[in-house]
Amino acid sequence: MSITKQLIDVIANPNAVVDSPRLKIATGQLSVSDPGIQIEGLGEMPFPLKARHVKQIEPFTQQAPYGKGTQTVVDTSVRNTREIKPEAFRVSGEFRQAVAAVLPDVAAKLGVPAEELRAEIYKLLIYEKGGRFDWHRDAEKRKGMIGSLIVVLPCKFGGGELTVRNQASSERNDFRAARLEQAAEYVAFYSDTQHSVARVSHGVRVCLAYNLFLKSKPRTTRKSSIDHRGDPVTVAVHDWMDQNPDEPMVIALEHQYTAAGLKPRLLKGVDREVADSIMNAAADLDCRIHLGMVSRHLCQYADDGYFGNSRYSRYGGSRSESVNYDDLNIGEVYEDEIVVDGWKDFTGASVAIGKLGCGASDLISLTPFEKWKPTEQDYEGYTGNAGNTLDRWYHKSAIVLWSNEKHFDILTRSGISPAVDEFLRMRESLSTIEKEDELENACDDLDRFARAIIAHWPRRFDDRFFADKTEPKYLKAFADELIRMEDPDLVGEWLVAVAQRDWVLPLSTWVPNAIKTLGKGEVIPPLTRLLETKLPPNKHGQAIASGLPKRDAAWLLKLCEKSKSLRVSIDECAELVQIAIGRFASDVRDGGRNFRIQATSRQATWLDLVKASLTIEHQSKKTFEGTGELFALLGQCEPSFDLRSFQVNGCVELIRWSEKKLDQIAKPVKHWHETIRRRLLEATERKPQPPTDQARSANVSCNCEYCSRLSVFLINPSQSTETIRARQDRRDHVENIIRQDELDIKTTTLRSGTPHGLVMTKTQASHGRAFKQYQDDLELIAKL
């Protein structure tokens, strides 16, 4: 029976009895043996792990230290273990679920509330032959930590027994099932309990260490004086949330309510009973509880019986109110979307939360989905191009529950804009909090909220397709508020997200403000990571975006210009600019194939990088390597920096900028100006002359029978027209070659006779183009 079905049954009949035995140590076996460990940089770890595999894994491990007084030291005579930190590996979802499944039993035996107990993976530990760990206690590594959970994986080994002791007694576990490769075994104990690992005599002992902690109770929710932790509904909700920790639980109500009538005190019949039970569970399980409106849109294939029997359906292929929906044959689902909005808290007051998507598995309903009555439906019969679809819309009021721990994550998932508004409101309200402990709690909440917003930062790689015409104010407001929080770690985390997700957000004002507030020592390292971060390929192996965002060149220029007032050395600026140039040049030399970046954007980036490089040279009074690299790109990759459409205007812009900002025209700009002018003078040395006879250029890219005749016609100095009689596909081919190769020929079709003929007449189009280019070049020389 699924946990959702169990929950529905308990809500409908909450009369179960819960037994909660209490012990100080918990032991047992997991239902899954293979953890499916993936090590970053290596891939899947061989399993079961043999002694011969350890050498393969060793480069990804380190000698495990231990705490000695206030220090952390490495001493293999006390602890001889290798470890891998959690950020460098991950276990399979199935194994995580198996660990979560034993937590209720662990909670019962340790004597803690099951609904509050959580396990957080700490490290992967590998004990080779001779591995051991002397008597010690585990430090409390995070707020709320109460103990440790050690899962020994099934691998052949000898020795390695774990002994746990306190003042009254001790317990020894030799993990027989694990050492015989039969099952993964676990043992859980409190942090202040002494324990040791005996010397491993042979084989490899591998275990996963978890921190056990209790999730803190909500500070804003009034707690009931009654303990409902043994209540069947509370237990069922807890079990459901253990399996769906990141998702809100949505419980559809049985009665229909208007927006004004959706209040706890106005709920009817079974809805009131459900609300009371869920409210008690929310208080005991540290959950937020809301009311909302569930909207479901279901689009399916539907047939009225006339599909294929006539050109149109019996309803004429149009949407019709006269459709007998009971007669429709319903088939494949095309779309099934569920969202929750219309939010209220449990006093009935409206709450500013955006639309929240909901999976069908997260929706709890006493009435099965298939028995819901649609509030609206619309059928479109077959029209020849579309149709045979049935759209139905369902609406239900609901109680929505989610873990207080996930509150800010869920708020942010429902919409970045309302989340930022709420974040800013909470920041502003800090000034009204007088009690020190309440202020500390509020600051902790804001820190978690900020990290949730960062985790859900929008993806925008091109200002043509992925951003509003004007920068959304809420994104800038959040970025500015991060500076005022004066938390360098948070700023660094945000800049990593910006590097990976947002190439549009301007930083030219933000960077100087951040350095003024936090100091260059806290801001320049994450800015370096911002410039060095390259986006990983997608699932198809293609880069999402490449090159350097235009905005990064813009803030680098601003930083160079303001380096003195910001007390950033010009050498520090040069290091950042050189990183950016390397990334930019690599992409341009690779052909600049990122479709998201237009040529004009790439050219604007080049100009800002050149300005930054010239500023560095001007302030340092010495040559900067990056300047030469940028100007070399003009010759190496001219398709990206066309002489006439970009270089002339770009050079004029740099001359004006250089005179204004540097009080002189920089030498590289002078040289560029002279090079462009010389090339244009060479191009205009001779005025294009019209042809003196009928001979034309015969650069024909095809040598088939008909194109060969075309070539002969082109070079004939006395022939001005020619007709090729052929089938239409062959005539079309010749016309395509004429257009593709830009030949001086116009065509018409001679429709008399069989086959029809392609009449070709010579023109002076090439001379016209050359003469126009000559005139344009003269104008460009004048501009220079």
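[next item in queue]
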Amino acid sequence: MKKFVLLLLFGFYGFVYAQNNQLGTLTVEKIMRDPKWIGTSPSAPYWSRDGKTLFFNWNPQGRTEDSIYYITPANLVPVKTSFNMRKQILPASSYTYNLERTRYTYAKNGDIFLGDAKTGTEKQITATVETESGPEFILNSSKIIFRRNQDVFAWDIALGITTQLTNFKKGIAPVREPKKDTLNPQEKWLARDQLEYFDVLKSRKNKKDSSEAATKAFTKEKELRSIYYGDRILSLVSVSPTGRFTTYRLTTPAKGARNTIVPSYVTESGFTQDINTRTKVGAPEGSSDFYVFDAIADTVLLVKTDSISGIKDLPDFAKDYPTYDSLKKKPETRKVTIIGPTWNAIGTSAVVEVLSADNKDRWIMLLDGATAKLSLLDRQRDEAWIGGPGIRSFNNNDNKWIDNETYWYQSEGSGYSHLYTVNVRTGEKKQLTSGNYEVQNAQLSLDKKYFYITTNAVHPGEKHFYKLPVIGGQLQQITTLTGANDVTLSPDEKYLAILYSYSTKPWELYLQQNKAGAKMKQVTYQAQSPEFKSYPWRDPEVIMFKASDGANVYARLYRPTQPNPLKPAVIFVHGAGYLQNAHKWWSSYFREYMFHNLLVEQGYTVLDIDYRGSAGYGRDWRTGIYRFMGGKDLTDQVDGAKYLVDNLGVDPKRIGIYGGSYGGFITLMGMFTRPGVFAAGAALRSVTDWAHYNDGYTSNILNEPYTDSIAYKKSSPLYYAEGLQGNLLMCHGMLDVNVHFQDIVRLTQRLIELKKDNWELAVYPMEDHGFVEPSSWTDEYKRILKLFDNTLKQK
């Protein structure tokens, strides 16, 4: 059975399966042609504009790549699209409607089109070799604006005339010097005298002056202010519904930021090639400014942020350093990034989101186009970092206005991401959802009377789809199957396309009417192959245990039917940090899921913990690792080990731990700082020193190395390597552009200098952070299994 499950686990290159008590074998060559031997799941569903057809990616025949299939609510049998059909289809999200939803516009193949929503008839607006994009209706739907290169143009629907609205130019505005009168007094007198005595000369001059004046007047009518932006980067160009205001962002790139290099040793040329990758945390960053161009006043105004409430607030961690007093006396205005704006339907109000560069603040602010002044609607301050579902996913095209005065948003102000509204005229705020659960997705209905939201209100490990009145009230649950229900709502809001999965069942596509209690109709049936179905995959229990600090910790538990007499156990640590794996749907860690089935076959107990920092449990859980990675996230693993010992009879001396990426980091911290808890550990693609990781992820949690060195020293395994006692396996891809191979090389040198001999390093010369070669996955997991068998099962 061990051989059976091991080969099944590594079915990417070969496996054996049981059927009618006889073993049948698939060859290596066949499996290499069919890497999706588990089955094939649909993905990326999207609706046609009229909501009559649902398209999705699928590969039921096991080809090298997915194809596009479609169904209709009347016919649920998937049909593969033809080449001509694929050329024509666009997702419903590609279309923009006028307020009355009688007309729509869209971009295709670099041109702009206008359509009639009732008849479906369409006309092409542009036909140029240049690319036009981003069409929208403005001025009571009388015009369509679109982008061409870096500028915005408006096409008048009634007249068919295209007008240029912006004139952005790279470089510095030329300095215009005043005209100089080069005639001396004698020359001026002669010129006047000539015109006084020669009528023909005077007549010709008058005609010339009139012609020049007319030309000048005509030219002036076509004049458009040139907006020069130097060598900065232009982005987020947006026009108000009235056409009066154009907002844009100019970004100054970072200077002195040094990129890292990842060498590739096994190449076609035979020469080592360098891969240019990212910077490291704390590298110099760019800055940006936000502007408003007022077409009526013909002014360009900078949106100033130095008077925003709290803009000079110091972070709490600064108190731990001797420079705090001097910083407090002369606090600096913090750098921010402005995102938006989102305008109400009539163009009288605009809302922007302002994010501080230190990740501590998010301001939702009203922008006055005429003055470029900001006024506060909501401030969310987090001494750890701003985050959570729907918090930092601002999109200019989101429908964020319930009416012309009411704006909606998400905030973790209550401890969980919930829905709020704010009246931009009165400033009155209202919380629409509440409770110990997260609103993970939200969209406004077409009639703006309801929200459609996805939450984990039933259980942290389930996802369901709900309907909620915009004024708040009772959630109406629409999906019912236990697991995850990822919903794509049809444009007419009549149907739900649902990607559904359960712990033991990979994703399948379902269709359901948008009604509570309506039946989910299954569309696809290929997510599990006959070979995959032939094995009784275990349904892990989602349990909860108490951490040493009293917190409730969720985990997946795999119990062996016949425990090994030595009572060994393995704890798996998921990667990414902010990710959820103790849930009731098909895990993205499907290889690990199968490996855990193999371990259980061999008598191991397996625990998979959603430790501090994991997704799905609110703000306090998300930020529980602030300034100390390897703190509470590690004690949750230690408390999990205690749970196994106290409740399941596991031998405390026979517990192993493993994981990749963040899971590899926790494995190292466990092996280095908790002697005696873990007898063996497999650290895969591990971060060994956070000062060498990227800025976007690390600076949120640990700030910057030169501003918060305490946090980095506490959190980096490199500083604790002398504590290694158990048996350690390290595996790392040499082409890893995420967690660089340099990380594990530096730790290896440290272990050598410390004269440690109970460790081993396996390198994979042609692998990135996520392995792609079946042979690499197989080699890695064979080594992990060997480590646990040799360490945890030895008498």
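[queue empty]
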